[in-house]
Amino acid sequence: MLAAVYAYEIYRRPETVVPQRIATPVPTALLLKPIPDSILNAAELRRGQYLILASDCVACHTREGGIPFAGGYAVRLPFGVIYTQNLTSDRQTGIGNWTTEQFYNVLHNGRGAHGEFLYPALPYTYFTRLNRADSDAILAFLKTIPPQSYIPPPNDLPFPLNIRLSVLGWNLLFFTPGEFAPSPQKSPEWNRGAYLVTGPGHCGACHTPKNFLIADETSKPLYGGTLDNWVAPDLTSNTRVGLGLWSIENIVEYLKTGRNGYSSAGGAMAEVVSNSTSVMTNDDLHAVAVYLKDQSGSPDNTFDTPDAGAMKRGAAVYFDICTSCHMEQPSEQQARLFPPMRANMVLQQSDPTGLLHLILAGDRTAPTPTRPSGLSMPSFAWKLNDQQIADLATYARNSWGNKASPVEAYQLSDMRKILNLESTRTSSVSQ
Amino acid sequence: MATILPPVDAVLVGFGWTGAIMGQQLCDAGLTVMALERGIWHDTPTDFAPTFVQDELRYMWRHHLFQNVANDTLTIRNNIKQQALPMRRLGSFLLGTDVGGSGVHWNGQIWRFLKSDFKAYSHNLHRYGNAMVNAYDMTIQDYPIDWDEIEPYYDMFDKLCGTSGKAGNLRGQIQVGGNPFEGPRSDEFPTPPMKMPYGPTLFSKAARTMGYKPFPHPTGNLSQPYTNSLGVQLGQCTYCGFCEKFGCGNYSKATAQTTILPYLMTKPSFTLRTESEVLKVETTSDGKHATGVTFVNSAGEEFFQPADIVILSAYSLQNVRLMLLSKIGAPYDPVTGKGSVGKNYAYQTMGSVDVFFEDKIMNPFIGAGALATVIDEFNGDNFDHSGLGFIGGGYIAQMVTGGRPIEMIRTPEGTPDWGIEWKKAAAKNYLHSVNISCHGSVMAHRGNYLDLDPTYRDSFGRPMLRMTFDFTDNELKMSRYLVDKAADIGQAMEGVSSVKKNYRKGSWNVVPYQTTHNTGGTITGDNPGNSVLNKYLQSWDVPNLFVMGAGAFPQNAGYNPTGTLAALAYHSAAAIKNRYLKNPGPLVQT
């Protein structure tokens, strides 16, 4: 109810547009509820509960304003919309009647309860790495979720994609079922991290670039991707756009608290941190970090010197409006409120979509149990015109040692249309 | 017919500073809590983003964050011989509304009262005799609480806010650079003092040469980023000079929003209902037990919220009014002196000195709500009042709350109030002047009180609160004394060309702005005969009713009230958690 109140408060004001996610109730109480020892299969239920947290199932299996896990969330793909399954224990519309075989078949083979092909909007290319015991544990926990009778809307897909058999070809090209196989040369911790990242955590679903059929470009693992008009940054050891400068502790802090002095979790990552990583165990977060730090860096690019005029104009905008929060030389604590510009990998992503989205629409840092402040950046869509934002972005991407391609004004005007944030002052502001 | 809602353990009426403190304390003690706020939800990026919040016209002059007096105001008179009239425009004080209350648009001045302030009656009686404490029809009395009892709760509030400052008395040891007059602190400030701009630096130098001990103002505008024990983060202040009357866009002013709400709002046991105006506290037929509150939402629908504990945490004036409307306790009668509800309304006596310089550039726009150096030599009973004809005092501060161009233009003595000469003087002096404020106490007087207006009603048809208040000679003499002392310091500032004394003169008026420090009316005392509340802010008449806020002050000290009212709230919460919940009933036996 509160979320609705906030949303109303925000949307009724024309000046500021921020995402609806405000003081997101971190994460659904169901997933944090202690399971008493008195329950027969307590250990299995706890394992299932934790894997559901680590897989962030709730994010996609809850429609906006809907009951957690009842499904109906619209996964918007370039060619259509797929609605997610009801995962509550309802026998008709949910998973109440499913057997463990059926459920394992979903995760492992990408096949539905009746053997039908599932669309890879469900990231079964990752979930196939879960072993049978983990799969059974997840189903056991899902069956404890109170039933909600709900049938999601039918998918909205064009021919031939509306024929499920079309997935067969996709699977032949891009899907190899197989449980996670530990690498004997690596430590148990590394293997735990590898399992979490490539299995339940399905990090690559967003952070690995996609080909024209929305399949992972497997030759570029975790090189970064785009979704929902946000950028999922490069997670390799690239020191400019990746995690190369982050220590293991930096990664753990980011995933636990949503902020670490280099960056703050926003955009699509905010709900991942709020709902999932912030409530994972420190040991698991450490394992994830160990694995990520072991990824070799993506190849880097070289860049021409940006236009001097753009840099000068961008600097003026930066010092006028950005330094009040981001400061010139923020202390470590201040950098955990508002990320610093220096060595900021989010700023330098090859695709500036996320940065432009952030400047236009504003955003909030993911609230987490240990750091509940959903600190925010306001919308600048009404305050700065396209050229000013382009200059600012170019400046920020090429100062303090940062290097990235310049941003042009047309990219802002495109983004404004997508986000429905047309400027109210486009023509009247002198440049 | 009111819709009856499911009962809760505690209901909060009003959701500003004290509401947020009590909500957090009681939820963490395991209670289910419902907060009812008459105004709307506010949070930083939506309502006071740094992209637009520094707008003096919108916030200061057009009252964007304040109570709309077209719906509800109070009636005002100076004494009982006058006919009170509604205050149709906010002026002398700026009433808050909405989530966060006045704490959203405060300056962030976090003070503790002096040890002797808690014993205003007995201390002054002992030092100056019976005639002085009864002069001017004074009705001052002691708090039923002393320094040692309240100090830990002051410390809790400092640690919630991350208060910036320098201790002057650390566990009894006087510290160089702090306020030597303050009571012993159990701990240093959580963050160091703010950096001082030029004006406060010159003030400090001058004061020191005159033998005073200047110190940095304790402030909730943070000198450094801070994370409190709830995990909530505050940022570093940027000295933009828009605190008072404005929300803070940088998360650097301590407010309910920046210290408590991100934590509290995620608690499943806590619910906030906005746009819900409480009409009255309901009681059992014998009037000895509160059953809950009746409120109206913005659609005009009426609800009854049952609760085991009712906490009035609205602004002090609203709390007094709700007590009167709910017929809890005996209304004060200034003629007979009987009754307590509405008694000892007090305020603040503000005087100041403008100091002008020929060449020195003060850059007044580098400001913050509590950016000041202060001397405390003339506050409370820090000086000998013998022969002065008054008691009380105040702090003297060169404070740079900002250089806002409409409100903060100073012109030297003799300048016309408008026209070309005024414009010339305004332009000439904007960068070359500072203001020294004299923040004085108001003692309680028999004729200063609050009751329900017999004529005027609000948009719900309820009687408005009637305020009867005037400065007495005690306050005016005190303020004149402070202004003269401040002027002496101004004259001693390096490069000074002239000073202008702004004495507080004559009767109190609803214009111009003075301060939003309205105290008393639900005062605390040691027995039901002299007060509305016991020292735990518990109603003597209805033991499951607690009343927060500065209404509890028996008289007002020479400091800003927020630190003390927050400490009293924490003190009350501790008593509820540790004693009341185990054994509901009066916490002080009569």
Commentary on this structure:
- The complex is a heterodimer of chains A (431) and B (590).
- The longest helix of chain A is centred in the C-terminal third of the chain and has 19 residues, at 308-326.
- Chain A is mainly alpha-helical and 431 residues long.
- Chain A has helices at residues 2-11, 42-55, 57-60, 100-109, 124-127, 132-142, 166-174, 188-198, 204-207, 248-257, 269-275, 282-293, 308-326, 332-335, 353-361, 386-397, 409-419, and strands at residues 74-77, 80-83, 225-227, 230-232, 363-364, 376-377.
- Chain A has 17 helices and 6 strands.
- Among the domains of chain A are: 20-179, no CATH class; 308-419, Cytochrome c-like domain (Cytochrome Bc1 Complex, Chain D, domain 2, Orthogonal Bundle).
- Chain A is globular.
- Residues 1-26 and 426-431 of chain A have low confidence and may be disordered.
- In chain A, helix 13 (308-326) crosses helix 16 (386-397).
- In chain A, a hairpin with a 2-residue loop joins strand 1 and strand 2.
- Chain B is of the alpha/beta class.
- Chain B has a single domain, classed as FAD/NAD(P)-binding domain.
- Helices cover 22% and strands 19% of the residues of chain B.
- Chain B contains 13 helices and 22 strands.
- Chain B has helices at residues 17-28, 44-47, 56-61, 120-128, 130-134, 147-161, 198-209, 256-259, 261-264, 316-325, 420-429, 473-492, 562-580, and strands spanning 3-4, 8-13, 33-36, 74-77, 85-86, 169-170, 173-174, 215-216, 226-227, 233-234, 270-273, 276-283, 290-297, 302-312, 349-357, 372-375, 394-399, 433-440, 449-457, 463-468, 496-502, 545-547.
- In chain B, strands 1, 2, 3, 11, 12, 13, 14 and 22 form an 8-stranded mixed sheet that branches.
- The longest helix of chain B has 20 residues, at 473-492.
- Chain B starts with a strand and ends in a 10-residue tail after the last helix.
- The A-B interface holds A 1-2, 5-6, 9-10, 13, 15-16, 18, 22-23, 25-26, 29, 321, 324-325, 327, 330-331, 333-334, 336-338, 362, 364, 367, 369-380, 383 and B 40-41, 43-47, 49-52, 224-227, 230-233, 235-236, 238, 240, 249-251, 258, 261-263, 265-266, 268, 271-272, 274.
